[in-house]
Specification:
Length: 254
C-alpha cells in the first residue's frame, strides 16, 4: 500500500475512534443527567410527602382540639387520626401545644399580609383598624371554639414579649404613622403607647365576642369602632383644666 493511502487510512481510523469516544462520553453525560433528575425528583417527592404528613397532623390536631380541648387530647390520638407514627409527629413538633402555636403563627402572618395588601395610606384611621380586625377575624378567629382555646393558652402570658403580639402592634403602629402623616392624628402622639392601647381594646372586645357577651361579628366591629372613636374625640370637658401628661412608669408590652 502506498504511503499516502496508508496515511489516509490512519486518519480515517483515528476519526472513527474520536467519534466513538464522543458518542460514549455523550451517553455517560446523559446517564448522569438522568440519575441526577431521578435523585432530584425523589428528593422533591420526599419533601412533598413530609409536607403532606405535617398538614395531616395539623388538621387532625386542630379537629381534636376543637372537639375535646387541648388538655384532653394526647399525642397518640393525633397521630392515630393523622395516620402517622409518633416519631413523625415529634419530627415536626416537640409538644401538642406547638401545633397550636404553628397554627397561630400562620394565621397571624396571613392576617397581616391581607391587611397590608388591601390597606393604603389614603385609607382612614378607623377603616384601617376595621380592615386589620376583619383580617384577623377571617384567618385567626374563623373557628370560635379553637379561638377560645388559643386565648386560654395565651391569656395568662398576655403582655409579655411574644412574636405574634409584636407583629400585631407593629401593624397598629404602621396605621398610626400613616394617620399622623395624613394629619388625622396629632403628630406628637406616642405611637407605640397608642398601639398598645388599641391592641388592648381589640383584645378585650374579641374576648367579649368569644365568651358570648358580644353576640355577632358586626356588633364586635361596632363596639371596637365606638371605643376608638371616643379616644379620637377625647372625653375631657372644655370647662375642666388641662391634665398633665402622666409618666406612669408602666412597662412596655412590646
Amino acid at each position: 500500500m502506498e504511503p499516502e493511502a496508508k496515511e489516509i487510512e490512519r486518519k480515517q481510523r483515528l476519526q472513527i475512534r474520536m467519534e466513538e469516544r464522543k458518542r460514549r462520553l455523550k451517553e455517560q453525560h446523559e446517564k448522569r443527567g438522568q440519575k441526577r433528575h431521578v435523585r432530584g425528583y425523589k428528593a422533591k417527592e420526599v419533601l412533598k410527602e413530609k409536607e403532606r404528613k405535617k398538614r395531616r397532623i395539623i388538621k387532625a390536631a386542630l379537629y381534636l382540639f376543637n372537639k375535646h380541648g387541648l388538655e384532653n387530647i394526647p399525642v397518640e390520638d393525633i397521630t392515630l387520626k393523622a395516620n402517622v407514627g409518633k416519631g413523625t409527629f415529634y419530627s415536626f413538633f416537640k409538644t401538642k401545644g406547638d401545633v397550636l402555636v404553628h397554627y397561630l403563627n400562620s394565621a397571624v402572618n396571613k392576617s397581616i399580609e391581607e391587611f397590608e395588601l388591601k390597606a393604603s395610606s389614603s385609607t382612614s384611621f378607623l377603616s384601617q383598624i376595621e380592615l386589620l380586625t376583619s383580617s384577623f377575624m377571617k384567618h385567626l378567629f374563623s373557628n370560635k371554639q379553637l379561638s377560645m382555646i388559643m386565648f386560654k393558652e395565651r391569656f395568662i402570658t398576655w403582655g409579655k414579649k411574644n412574636e405574634n403580639e409584636l407583629k400585631v402592634e407593629k401593624a397598629l403602629e404602621k396605621i398610626i404613622e400613616n394617620s399622623k402623616n395624613s394629619g388625622e392624628i396629632d403628630g406628637h402622639v406616642d405611637t407605640k403607647f397608642l398601639a398598645q392601647m388599641l391592641h388592648g381594646i381589640c383584645t378585650m372586645y374579641m374576648t367579649f365576642w368569644l365568651n358570648g357577651a358580644i353576640e355577632s361579628k358586626s356588633m364586635l366591629f361596632t363596639e371596637i369602632k365606638k371605643a376608638i372613636t371616643i379616644i379620637m374625640n377625647g372625653v375631657r370637658s372644655q370647662h375642666e383644666c388641662n391634665y398633665a401628661n402622666p409618666d406612669t412608669g408602666l412597662p412596655s408590652f412590646g
